[in-house]
Structure formats: structure tokens, C-alpha cells
Amino acid sequence: MAKVKALILRIGGHHFFESAAIINDFLSATDTIEPVMSEDAAILASPDLATYDVCIYGGGFRLGDKDTFTEEQEKALLSFVNGGKGFVGTHGAAWYTMITGPILMGA
User: Fold this and answer.
1) Would you say 28 and 35 are in contact if contact means Cβ atoms under 8 Å apart?
2) Range 4-104: architecture per CATH
3) Which residues are bridge partners to 86 per DSSP?
4) Residues near 6 by beta carbon (within 8 Å), at least 6 away in sequence
5) What is the pLDDT along the chain (107 residues), one digit of tens a residue?
């Protein structure tokens, strides 16, 4: 069985830069997941995104907040998820308006 290829976006605030390294080490210890870290959000709008099965991000963002992702990167991430790929958001911010989860789920 092929390994799940996980993109860990090591960007954003809320100390995710440090947490990403721990997540990478944890996932690297498995036989089923191949984690790859990136510090460049441009990967979201590149053809390389399609090579991943899941994107892990913990910086927290609101759709339309251009300080985190460009519109092109947001659209690519939404297409990634709507195409059947996974998104793991580790930032607990359910109180945000226009939170990412419902938008990714098509709500």
C-alpha cells in the first residue's frame, strides 16, 4: 500500500512553525505517512499540490484574509479539498466568522 503523502505548511502564526516540526517527526515515525514540510504557501497554487493526499496547517486563517494566502492559493486549497483530498487544521478558532471548515465542506 502506498504511503499517504502529507504536506505540512510550516507558515503562519500561533507557534505552528515550531509545532510543524514536531508533527513532521511524529508522522515520519510511521510506516504509512510520508510528511513533507514547506515554508512557502506558493505550493498551494502549484501543480505539486496534486501530489499530496492531505494538507496540514495550523496557523489559522479566514478566507479572504490576504495576509495569509492569496486568492489563487485559497481557490487551489478549496479545489484540493473539494476534489477529495484532506485538510487538517489544528488551530482552534471556531469563533471566527467565515471559518474555514464550513467553506471547505461546501456549506
Assistant:
1) yes
2) 3-Layer(aba) Sandwich (3.40)
3) 54
4) 27, 33, 34, 35, 36, 52, 53, 54, 55, 56
5) 899 999 999 886 666 778 889 999 999 999 999 999 999 999 999 999 999 999 998 766 655 566 678 889 989 998 999 999 998 887 655 544 455 555 555 65
**Distance (Å, rounded) from C-alpha 45 to C-alpha 58?**
18
* C-alpha cell belonging to residue 85: 483530498
| Phi/psi at 39 (5° precision) | -105, 20
Question: What residue segments make up the domains of the chain, in order of their start?
Answer: 4-104
Residue with cell 505517512: 33
